Amino acid sequence: MAVSTVYTVQSLNSTCSISTPSKPFSQKHILFFTTTKRALTRSCRQISCSAEDKTVVIGLAADSGCGKSTFMRRLTSVFGGAAEPPRGGNPDSNTLISDTTTVICLDDYHSLDRTGRKEKGVTALDPKANDFDLMYEQVKALKDGAAVDKPIYNHVSGLLDPPELIKPPKILVIEGLHPMYDERVRHLLDFSIYLDISNEVKFAWKIQRDMAERGHSLESIKASIEARKPDFDAYIDPQKQYADAVIEVLPTQLIPDDNEGKVLRVRLIMKEGVKFFNPVYLFDEGSTIEWIPCGRKLTCSYPGIKFSYGPDTYYGHEVSVLEMDGQFDRLDELIYVESHLSNLSTKFYGEVTQQMLKHSDFPGSNNGTGLFQTIVGLKIRDLFEQIVVSRTAAALEAAKA
Amino acid sequence: MATVAGVNVAAVKVFARASEPSPKSVSFSHVNNPWRRSACVPIRKICVAAAPDKLTNKVEESIKAAEEACAGDAVSGECAAAWDEVEELSAAASHARDKQKDSDPLETYCKDNPETDECRTYDN
Q: Does the pLDDT at position B13 exceed 80?
């Protein structure tokens, strides 16, 4: 009985939810049946259900216009199913729900709406505009398996709408500007990611996004970035020292004097010593490698692809850095690269390539941003499965003791 | 269950308060008046097109307001807050554009009403 419970929990689509309604019944059974064997199986099923009820919380921090939505879509796709806004609710809700994951936008915890911030002269980046107490309270409640009524910040009207009910999911992702700012919320996160986009690349991306919009000009885009920079550097940027993984996007080094920003150099900085997280490596873990896959076996077009891997320190922590500079033009380049990377946590050969191809229309699908976002998604899936297994094992130990 | 009914009631209240007609509110009247089915889809189309236009106007206005606010003092809190609003509205406009690009009116309608004649699928 106990063994079979462990096996059901290991898969993401577990049948534990079916036995949950029987919890009140099993409680009654423990009272009535005094045989130790029967009590053990009943309490095991009950405890393994409650171990699974504990949500895994992932934090994602990035500035606006930096690829959070694309990352979210890739992440929910790795777990299976498409994430959609809640059915029958507020159409301007920022929440996304799929079978296993729920994504909450931290803008919903703004304490000041748009007019309030204008009056006080604070940006949304300022901690004064956010209610961290409510954020901590609700994330903790969701993590412990309780549903919450979360406020909605309507980005169209700039007002705080009536709350919506959020049920605790298997995986909760909180994305926004300040997931790691408040210390209490930081300790609730099982894994955290920071998307660090350099100024030149940010400018190029915002131009691409906003030039189609009537009213915007190069000067207005530049002025908008400059005006937000002091608050960004003071409140958002320091969060990268707390992240377990940082995806840093820089201009390419392969094309001299490139200012188009099409080819990117992306670095995946992975903290060492994080529980349940084994960094991806190239050829030999812990050594320094420079690798250009293009050559006799693989032909690439200009500017080609360059990889490097090595240990480093980042804000005082030991990290491993995997870097990719260049673009993928063909499918076989992608599969060739995937076959040489290790510790990817894929379930079958070619899973990374398959995920990248599934979303070939997403931005960044031909360079390191898409590749590393997909890899981080697979790592998070692996982390989730390991956490569930360890919690069940701990619960069984407690039941036996 | 009570929670689901509560959410539905709350959802109806939200639509009553919203200034623009939400496409989802049409589906409630559809349940009661099935002959109105054909009328639903064109209304939905108009609703989807409206959002980006409204947002575009908002973006334009906010840029003008930000330029005025910063004409006085370029490093004040008001200037930063004004440009932050421009950034927020530009992001919302770009998300609305992306949503509009992928949405197919028939698919969105069928997601909520799979039992209607237009949306039935036969597997044998």
A: no
